[in-house]
Amino acid sequence: MDGGGAHELKLLGSWASPYVARVKLALHLKGVHYSYAEEDLADKSDLLLRSNPVHKAVPVLIHNGRPVCESQVIMQAGTDEERAEWKRQRVAAVGTLEEGLSECSGGKGSFFGGECVGYVDALLGGVVPWVRATEKLSGDRFFDAGEAPLLAAWMERFGELDAAKAVFQDVDALVEYSRALQAGRDFSGGAGSYVA
Q1: How far is C-alpha 43 from the geometric centre of its chain's CA atoms?
Q2: I need a surface site. Which of 1, 32, 178, 186 has the fewest CB within 10 A?
Q3: Is the pLDDT score of 80 beyond 80?
Q4: Three-state secondary-structure class, residue 56
Q5: Cβ atoms 102, 109 nearer than 8 A
Q6: Are 111 and 118 in contact (CB under 8 A)?
Q7: Cα 10 from Cα 24, distance rounded (Å)
Q8: Measured between alpha carbons, how far is 70 from 58 in angstroms, rounded to an integer?
Q9: CB atoms within 10 A of CB 152
Q10: Is residue 118 pLDDT above 50, yes or no?
Q11: Rounded CA gap, 6 and 4, in Å?
């Protein structure tokens, strides 16, 4: 998805959705031109229901008539050059997070809240299963112990919390789900499946 091609792109979204905002931001940052259709989630359009028949959720990016669902999947699209730039930016962001964790934890790296789980831990911790799934899909290690030892240990520690174990999505199921979405297949991961 480059900004200069003759591709027809249409984004189905809802103004209040942070997942739609994430996709819109990524498209704008890439200079990608697209049309936008605001969805009334209380009265979903036929186009949305046809484009995302399993979850009937936004965002959906329709690329030359083919729907791509889920903000994480949409965000992974792009050229090799774009992916390399996003990787460079991710590495820089990980460095910043590593410094922040060191500062917030007094150098111990336990949690962003210090010795106890805090707001930032809960905010970032909610995406741990998707980080793990994305690592499996991409082959990249986002929080490598050699480059970000505090974050790598934090992810392991956070994932071992009883609360995290009780609510986290199964990483392998997320990988299967993402692959099914990328292939344009319907997928239902059962109760507790993640929809973004």
Answers
A1: 26
A2: 186
A3: no
A4: coil
A5: yes
A6: yes
A7: 11
A8: 7
A9: 19
A10: yes
A11: 7
pLDDT digits (tens, 9 = 90+) for 125-150: 999 999 999 889 888 888 889 989 99
How far apart CA 194 and CA 73 sit, in angstroms, is: 13
- Packed helices 149-159 and 80-104: angle between N→C axes, nearest 10 degrees: 80
pLDDT tens profile 41-70: 999 999 999 999 988 999 999 998 999 998
Query: What confidence category does residue 185 fall into, taking pLDDT thresholds of 50, 70 and 90?
Result: low
What is the distance between the terminal CA atoms of the chain, rounded to a whole angstrom?
20
Please identify which residue in the block is written with the tokens 């046809």.
50
Q: Which residue has the tokens 């993640």?
A: 194
Distance from C-alpha of 132 to C-alpha of 135, rounded to nearest angstrom: 5
Considering the entire predicted model, what is its pTM?
0.60
Burial class (CB in 10 A: 0-12, 13-18, 19+), 9: middle
Give the three-state DSSP class for 144: coil
Q: How many residues does the chain have?
A: 196
3-state SS record for 1-24: CCCCCCCCEEEEECCCCHHHHHHH
